Amino acid sequence: MRETDRRSMLRLGMVCALTACLSATVLADQADRIQPYPKNPYFWQYKGRPVLLLGGSDDDNLFQWEPDKLAAQLDTLIACGGNYVRNTMSDRDEGNLYAFARVGDRYDLDRWNEEYWRRFESFLRLAAERDVIVQIELWDMWDLTRDNWARHPFNPLNNVNYTAAESDLLTEVPFAPAEEPTKHNFFHTVPELENNTRVLRHQEAFIDRVLAISLPFSNVLYCINNESGEPPEWSRHWAKRIHQRAKEHGVTAQVTDMRRREDITHATHRTVYDDTEVYTFADVSQNTGNQIRDRRLQYRRLLEVRKYLGDAPRPINNVKIYNDNFGGAPKFLRNVFAGLASTRFHRPVPWNGGSRGLALSDEAQRVLRSVRTYTNALDWFTLEPRPDLLSGDNGVYLMAQPGRQYALGFDGGGSVELDARALSGPARLRWMSMHDDKWIDGGRIEPGRVSLKTPADGLWMGLLLAR
């Protein structure tokens, strides 16, 4: 064999080996990424194992925090059984940074504020080190309306890149995000709507920078908007861009959109549920909004969405539980016992007296600790909602694998009749308060229709396991 041929074969062998190594690395990375659990796609899988996402945090844009403060928050979350945070790419709170560099008294959309991006990457790294799943919201409608729009870099009055006439954007947006499309055409720039390339190129550059930093991390979920009523074409454009950029990175991304309307069964939400091409999970956070004053309605709507997704099951997330009306803990209970893949306490919104969410308060930590202890005692990912096995619609919720496991949530205590005829023999009943992760023995239960009563009033979780 000639020396040149030998060298060519060696180079070819090295290339093939490197390619095989890279392919194996990509496949390993993909296997470890957050993704629907194949055996039950209503739940998530992370690092090859099913995982229930439970969380709470004191802010929605934790990446804006200094590293020491952020690390302490994540450590507190982990210590009480949490593993899930929300991260809006938001910049409206006091002390927040914008993504763009300042030039004099305005911003240059072609130049980055590198500290903003350094904090973002650091946040994702700290979360990944702790196996905390991050749900990123790319566009927060509240950052881009009213007083927040008046000072935002994308406003034509605040940047050196385009004028109001050149961009055709509003300089004043006195209205809030709405359930229906508004005249705020910042959200109409995509080719399928107004094709406003003058603005769109800056929007796409921003999103591409978010993706360049976040896609290498395996612990990230993507949500296009926070509470959008804008045309679905806007959201779909960004969802498709995420998938394209993920493909270029050799990975798969998980994407959803959050609509504004609180009725999660409404047609506006079905634009997400029906589009299985780009939306790989659902977010139903608005179901806990302050206009819904019927706890049974909140629960029934969750089951309706689950049923609606039945032909193409996907995880159903709730990234923010409002503390208005029934309180955050009862809503947390309903989410868990409706079989949601994630549930998280909302932050204490500063302009609402700090009451909108339990965040990572002492009460939130107790709930997280109890729910994690409780769900770890079951083979949770084999369960499904089975309200048909209970007598009446009375604030008691059931996840079950009939004959083996029955998980009951009591929204206020009380009693219920459970159809446990599928048991082949006696089972052991145990109780746990949602605010105290200690077990109470409930005794032996025989197969049949059995009456169960909580040890006291309050939020309780009952567990019936076949021996």
Please tell me the overall pLDDT. Answer: 92
Cross-sheet strand order for the largest sheet: 14-15-16-21-18-19
> What would the CATH topology of the largest domain be?
TIM Barrel
Name given to the CATH architecture of the largest domain: Alpha-Beta Barrel
Give the distance, in angstroms, between the N- and C-terminal Cα atoms.
71 Å
Assign the CATH class of the largest domain: Alpha Beta
| Poorly predicted runs of 5 or more residues | 1-28
Strand content: 15-25%
The figure for the number of domains is: 2
Biggest sheet: strands, sense, closure? 6 strands, antiparallel
Shape: elongated
From the helix content, strand content and strand pairing, which structural class follows?
alpha/beta
DSSP strand count: 21
Secondary structure tally, helices: 11
Helix content: 25-40%
CA radius of gyration:
24 Å
CATH homology-level superfamily of the largest domain: Glycosidases
What's the helix and strand layout?
Blueprint: H1 3-32, E1 35-36, E2 44-46, E3 49-51, E4 53-56, H2 67-79, E5 84-88, E6 100-103, E7 106-112, H3 114-129, E8 133-140, H4 146-150, H5 164-167, H6 197-214, E9 220-226, H7 232-249, E10 255-256, H8 267-273, E11 282-283, H9 295-308, E12 316-317, H10 328-337, E13 342-345, H11 362-376, E14 384-385, E15 396-401, E16 405-411, E17 415-420, E18 427-433, E19 436-445, E20 448-453, E21 459-466
Parallel strand pairs: 4-13, 5-8, 8-9, 9-10, 11-12
Antiparallel strand pairs: 1-2, 2-3, 6-7, 14-15, 15-16, 16-21, 17-20, 18-19, 18-21
Helix pairs in contact: 2-3, 3-6, 6-7
